[in-house]
């Protein structure tokens, strides 16, 4: 039975990434407040936010300094755009800061408001750049199966998940997909992880050669995959990929929308996995999600080409209203100041042994096929048969059942198919890590009892 608030929601809103039919029965979980790693629903029930919202509230909820920063900027200058030569001081400060901390040389920063628009911008810049330097045929962009890059027309095309393409008439032309470097699911019998990584790089090279290297402009990858099921490439994968990209003069775009700002135990994910990107998309934790901000980090060679275009054709015809929004910019500056001042990366590293001790224990759970992840992001894949890796029948919605039970236990996690993702705020402490896994283990134990009693393992 839905509450009044739930009924009003069901009758008025479309929710992203929701089964619209099932939602009419279940209704929403209406959250009202938050503090630290905890959020509270409209009945006052507490939950550990084990997903940091959508992989984003890195400093947790109701951070007083961020609240005060937003209030102060709101009252001083709540809005100014940055079109046509306008600017604002926090935007300048944030751009300088990002250039300083980026893991590769950055010439200019282009602000936006979401991870999707950042990746859309990346696609447009790759095309613009190649036109500018007289290579109009070099336009194709290669992404990966199970990669996640957003939902706008170009970024959803980069995303390598069927739900983002089916019946949306996507992907658009010039976007291709290569192998997903997830060994557990895509490694062949008898193949070592190293051989698998070599095969992934070989398959990328074969695709480039098939399409014609003169037509392939860029490759985009998340250092560690998130929304596609938390996929962690084998050690050495990016080195092998990098060799192929260098050989055919293909730009490397790092999608650091989840992994930027400490998630993998380094300031940027590229550093944790040995990526050498040319350009980078950031969002989410750039403001601890207190304001929608994204940033595309542009290298000098692309900026130089953009500058030439302006000399030739005039205006750079791209950008949106909220780019460089002063409140978001001020929050970005303050968030990065807190990351550095409080050594959040160091804190994450100190939490990792405890976090992974719990995860390692879960490997023995009868439902768990694989535990994977890096730093403070993990995926727990639930399978019908541990020995053969046989998945549950998709219609049994095992992953959704797991997250529902976790929610009953007072823990918010997210299922990506039958993989349960965990990505708590980076400020989580040791006691809260223990509590998170106590709740999750209780939920998985209850699910195991249900699976047995309902005989859900039957093929
Ligand atoms: C790696 C990655 N890229 C891009 C996006 C899209 O970001 P947004 O939802 O802000 O458009 C996401 C969102 O989860 C993401 O995880």
From TrEMBL:
<dbReference type="GO" id="GO:0030170">
    <property type="term" value="F:pyridoxal phosphate binding"/>
</dbReference>
<keyword id="KW-0032">Aminotransferase</keyword>
<dbReference type="GO" id="GO:0004015">
    <property type="term" value="F:adenosylmethionine-8-amino-7-oxononanoate transaminase activity"/>
</dbReference>
<dbReference type="InterPro" id="IPR015422">
    <property type="entry name" value="PyrdxlP-dep_Trfase_small"/>
</dbReference>
<dbReference type="Pfam" id="PF00202">
    <property type="entry name" value="Aminotran_3"/>
</dbReference>
<dbReference type="InterPro" id="IPR005814">
    <property type="entry name" value="Aminotrans_3"/>
</dbReference>
<dbReference type="InterPro" id="IPR015424">
    <property type="entry name" value="PyrdxlP-dep_Trfase"/>
</dbReference>
<keyword id="KW-0808">Transferase</keyword>
<dbReference type="InterPro" id="IPR015421">
    <property type="entry name" value="PyrdxlP-dep_Trfase_major"/>
</dbReference>
<dbReference type="GO" id="GO:0009448">
    <property type="term" value="P:gamma-aminobutyric acid metabolic process"/>
</dbReference>
<dbReference type="GO" id="GO:0009102">
    <property type="term" value="P:biotin biosynthetic process"/>
</dbReference>
<comment type="similarity">
    <text>Belongs to the class-III pyridoxal-phosphate-dependent aminotransferase family.</text>
</comment>
<protein>
    <submittedName>
        <fullName>Aspartate aminotransferase family protein</fullName>
    </submittedName>
</protein>
<keyword id="KW-0663">Pyridoxal phosphate</keyword>
């Amino acid at each position: 039975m839905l509450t009044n608030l739930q009924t009003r929601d069901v009758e008025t809103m479309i929710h992203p990434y929701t089964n619209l039919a099932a939602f009419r029965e279940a209704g929403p979980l209406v959250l009202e407040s938050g503090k630290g790693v905890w959020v509270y629903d409209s009945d006052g029930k507490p939950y550990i936010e084990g997903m940091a919202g959508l992989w984003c509230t890195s400093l947790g909820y109701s951070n007083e300094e961020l609240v005060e920063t937003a209030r102060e900027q709101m009252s001083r200058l709540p809005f100014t755009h940055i079109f046509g030569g306008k600017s604002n001081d926090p935007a300048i400060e944030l751009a300088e800061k990002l250039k300083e901390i980026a893991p590769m040389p950055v010439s200019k920063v282009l602000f936006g408001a979401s991870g999707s628009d950042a990746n859309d911008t990346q696609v447009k810049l790759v095309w613009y750049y190649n036109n500018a330097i007289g290579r109009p045929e070099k336009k194709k962009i290669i992404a990966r199966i199970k990669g996640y890059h957003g939902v706008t027309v170009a970024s959803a095309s980069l995303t390598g998940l069927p739900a983002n393409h089916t019946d949306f008439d996507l992907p658009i032309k010039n976007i291709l997909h290569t192998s997903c470097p997830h060994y557990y699911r895509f490694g062949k019998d008898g193949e070592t992880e190293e051989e698998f990584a070599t095969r992934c790089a070989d398959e990328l090279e074969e695709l480039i050669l098939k399409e014609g290297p003169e037509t392939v402009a860029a490759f985009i990858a998340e250092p560690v995959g998130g929304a596609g099921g938390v996929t962690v490439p084998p050690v050495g994968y990016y080195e092998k990929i990098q060799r192929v990209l260098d050989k055919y003069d293909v730009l490397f775009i790092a999608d650091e929308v989840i992994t930027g700002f400490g998630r993998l135990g380094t300031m940027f994910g590229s550093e944790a996995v040995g990526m050498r990107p040319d350009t980078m998309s950031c969002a989410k934790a750039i403001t601890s999600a207190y304001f929608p901000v994204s940033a595309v980090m542009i290298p000098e060679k692309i900026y130089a080409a953009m500058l030439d275009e302006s000399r030739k054709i005039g205006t750079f015809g791209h950008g949106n209203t909220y780019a460089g929004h002063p409140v978001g910019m001020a929050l970005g500056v303050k968030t990065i100041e807190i990351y550095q001042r409080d050594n959040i990366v160091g804190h994450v590293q100190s939490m990792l042994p405890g976090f992974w001790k719990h995860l390692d224990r879960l490997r023995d759970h009868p439902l768990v096929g694989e535990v994977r992840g890096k730093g403070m992001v993990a995926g727990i894949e639930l399978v019908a048969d541990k020995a053969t890796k046989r998945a549950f029948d998709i219609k049994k919605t095992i992953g959704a059942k797991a997250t529902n039970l976790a929610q009953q236990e007072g823990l918010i996690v997210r299922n990506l198919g039958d993989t349960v993702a965990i990505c708590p705020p980076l400020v989580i402490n040791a006691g809260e890590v223990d509590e998170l896994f106590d709740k999750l283990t209780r939920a998985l134990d209850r699910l195991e009892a249900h699976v047995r009693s309902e005989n859900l393992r039957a093929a």
